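Researcher: Structure prediction, please.
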Amino acid sequence: MGIDKRKVKTQEETGEEAPIDQVEERVEAEMKRLEGRAKESVAQGLQDAELEREGRKLREEAERTLEEQRHREDS
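Model: Predicted structure follows.
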């Protein structure tokens, strides 16, 4: 008994992302979210409104990315 190579489908053929790619994207988004939070905190301490906006924007973008990933995983 062997594997029938004609019946085997690759991840590329099914359109499925490799697990390592899914994790890498999630980790990058988490790091971006943390960086945004850190910038917001520092900006508040320095009373730097521009840096605070930049940090908020970065954090919100990362949170949207993470939410999109969750929806894809649930589908």
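Model: The chain has a mean pLDDT of 87.
Researcher: Thanks, that helps.
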